[in-house]
Every structure is written in structure tokens, then in C-alpha cells.
Write a structure and sequence with these properties.
Elements (H helix, E strand, L loop, with lengths): L4 E9 L5 E10 L4 E5 L6 H8 L7 E6 L2 E2 L4 H6 L1 E4 L11 H11 L6 H10 L15 H13 L5 E5 L7 H16 L3 E5 L3 H7 L2 E6 L2 E7 H8 L1 E8 L15 E3 L5 E7 L7 H10 L4 E8 L2 H21 L1
Parallel strand pairs: 3-8, 3-9, 6-7, 7-8
Antiparallel strand pairs: 1-2, 1-4, 4-5, 9-10, 11-13, 11-14, 12-13
Helix pairs in contact: 3-5
The chain binds adenosine-5'-triphosphate (ATP) and magnesium ion.
């Protein structure tokens, strides 16, 4: 099946010369939930803004539902609902009118039943006659989501939807996202909460300094997370790994003082007993050991760190 969103070699250099996106290519499948992770300033909002054609790319192309966002803007945009990172709603308008008006902007006929369904799903029905300025911050965020859903989009972008949102609303939001997905809506969200990406996403993309460092099925990342590390602090530094230990997934620290062994926690045999016996046979003694489980956060931090280092190296070259 053709992807619902197809991004090719997308670059964005802002006026002033800052490159916020640097050759991003990505296909997003219909019906998936994709979480974009990345530090502040990584380019997440810029990427979303380019896909929604709010920011014009400096190079590359984006197609939504087969419609090029530049040459076929209206058709592409009509498929998209966007919940922006910044709250911006008309303060004096009522909740209900805000959402109705948003639907009208897409040239769709009024559909009170749909508007009611959306407002109810977001627990805004009781507030429908209130003016936006009378709402709390969390409720304003809900209005933004209601607006984004007013024209029944096939793709929903949520840019940091749960930043500054309380636990109850966060839970409501994720219930809503799940039910939208069940209806076949494709969802792309950005978040700083790694647990959130872990819980919600089918696929996870990591972006930093305008580059997409990785896009992976969550299950594959989870498998990486199933790995544990055993670090042995050696009694004496080791210059090289003995050939007898070549079959183990071992890494020697730069100073030769430690060996790290990676193993799968779900495997029937971890291989630790055999490794320790082989180490003893090779005459390698250790004074201490520790184990740790790698998490998505580790995977993320390592990637961002490696990305930063390779960028610095490129810069130096
Ligand atoms: N209109 C603009 N003009 C110039 N530079 C911009 C503009 N908008 C964003 N940038 C820069 O582009 C980079 C990426 O910004 P962007 O908002 O896409 O990051 P982000 O990943 O969404 O970060 P955050 O997690 O803080 O929301 C930043 O360095 C930012 O300063
Ligand atoms: Mg952002």
C-alpha cells in the first residue's frame, strides 16, 4: 500500500541561514502511530510545519495522500488535522463556534453530530457555550484538538500534545488517540516523554540537528531494550581481547580497565556462567561487576550523542 505521507530529501534553511532540516526522507503508513523524539530545537516542529505546508521547504518534497503539498496544497491540507505546539485560539469566541468555524474553513458542510461527538470525546460538551478565554490551559489544548478533528482528517499531527497537561487529560488524550487509530486515522506526535512514545507508538523516529537519526518499529527497539549489560571492572588493564573470547559480544573500555558483555534477558541462557569460566581460564581477573538494563532513553541519548559527535567531526573535516 502506498504510504499516506511521503517525504523526500526535505531541507529547510530559515531566513538568516539556520538549517533546521537537513535531508529528511520518511514514509508514513496509513493507520500507524509514529512518535518523533528529539531534543529542543531538533527540528520536529519545522518538519511538521513543512508537511502541513505552513513553512515552505528549501528543498525536497512532501506528498500527503498522493498530493504534493506545494503544487496541490488544498487537497493535501484537507487530509490533515494539526494540533500546534503553541496554543492560539480566538479568545472571545465560544468553544462550539471555534470548532464549527474550523470545519467551515475546509469548505465542508456543517455537521452538528460530528462536532458534538468531538466535543464530547474531549469532555468539552459542557463548556461548549463558554468563551475560549474562560477555559483553563488544559481545556484550551482540548479545543485545539477539537479544531484539528473538526474536518475529519485522515492524518492527525500532535505537536507536544501533553506538555503541561495533567495526568487525567493525558490519559483522555491517549484514549482518544487510540480510538482515532482504530478508525484508521494516522497519527504523528512529538513528545519529550519517552515513556509516552513507548506506550503509544507503533514506530519511533529520533530526530536531532535536523537529521532523522533512526526510524524503527517500537517492537524492534523494545528488543534492543531487552538487552542487559554486564560490566566487569578488571583487576589489571587489558590491552587486547584474547582470541578465546572472540565469540562473546564483548567491548573493551578505552582504557582497557573494563569489559562490557551484552546479553538478551529473555534468552534461555545468558552465557554469563560460561563467560566467567572462560575469563578465568584466560587469566583475566576482575575486582567488581555491575549489570544494567538499556532503556529506550539510553537508545535515544546514545543516538543523539553519536549524532552530535558525527556532526562535529563533519564540521571539523
Ligand atoms: N521561524 C524561524 N526562523 C528561524 N529559525 C527558526 C524558526 N523556527 C525555528 N527555528 C530554528 O530551527 C530549529 C528547529 O526548531 P523547531 O521548532 O523545529 O524545533 P523542535 O524540535 O520543535 O524543538 P522543541 O522540542 O523545542 O519544540 C531551532 O534551532 C529553531 O531556533
Ligand atoms: Mg517543537
Amino acid at each position: 500500500m502506498a504510504p499516506i505521507i511521503s517525504i523526500r530529501d526535505l531541507t529547510k534553511t530559515y531566513d538568516g541561514g539556520f538549517t533546521a532540516l537537513d535531508g529528511v526522507s520518511l514514509d508514513i503508513e496509513e493507520g500507524e502511530i509514529l512518535a518523533l523524539l528529539g531534543p529542543n530545537g531538533a527540528g520536529k516542529t519545522t518538519l511538521i510545519s513543512c508537511i502541513c505546508a505552513l513553512v515552505s521547504p528549501s528543498g525536497g518534497s512532501v506528498a500527503v495522500g498522493g498530493h504534493d503539498t506545494l503544487t496541490d496544497f488544498r487537497a493535501a491540507r484537507s487530509l490533515i488535522g494539526l494540533v500546534p505546539q503553541e496554543v492560539s485560539i480566538e479568545p472571545f469566541e465560544t468553544v462550539e463556534n471555534t470548532v464549527k468555524f474550523s470545519r467551515g474553513l475546509f469548505g465542508l458542510p456543517p455537521d452538528p453530530a460530528h462536532i458534538e461527538k468531538v466535543l464530547r470525546a474531549l469532555s468539552l460538551w459542557d463548556k461548549r457555550s463558554n468563551r475560549n478565554m474562560e477555559l483553563s490551559g488544559g481545556m484550551k489544548r482540548r479545543v485545539l484538538i477539537a479544531k484539528a478533528l473538526s474536518h475529519e482528517p485522515r492524518v492527525l499531527f500532535l505537536d507536544e500534545p501533553t506538555a503541561g497537561v495533567d495526568v487525567a487529560l493525558r490519559k483522555d488524550m491517549w484514549d482518544l488517540v487510540r480510538s482515532l487509530r482504530a478508525e484508521g486515522v494516522t497519527i504523528i506526535l512529538t513528545t519529550h516523554y519517552i515513556e509516552e512514545a513507548e506506550e503509544m507508538a507503533d514506530r519511533i523516529g529520533v530526530i536531532d540537528s535536523g537529521k532523522l537519526l533512526l526510524v524503527e518499529q517500537k517492537s524492534v527497539l523494545m528488543q534492543k531494550m531487552g538487552q542487559k549489560e554486564l560490566t566487569l571492572h578488571l583487576a589489571a588493564p587489558l590491552a587486547d581481547l584474547p582470541a578465546a573470547l572472540a565469540d562473546y559480544d564483548l567491548t573493551r573500555s578505552e582504557d582497557g580497565q573494563a569489559l562490557t558483555y551484552r546479553y538478551d534477558t529473555r534468552a534461555q541462557r545468558t552465557g554469563i556462567t560460561r563467560l566467567l569460566a572462560d575469563l578465568a581460564a584466560a587469566g583475566i581477573a576482575f575486582r567488581d561487576l555491575e549489570t544494567r538494563q538499556s532503556s529506550l532513553e539510553d537508545v535515544f541519548l546514545t543516538l543523539v550523542d553519536e549524532g552530535a559527535r558525527s556532526t562535529t567531526q563533519e564540521g571539523a573535516a
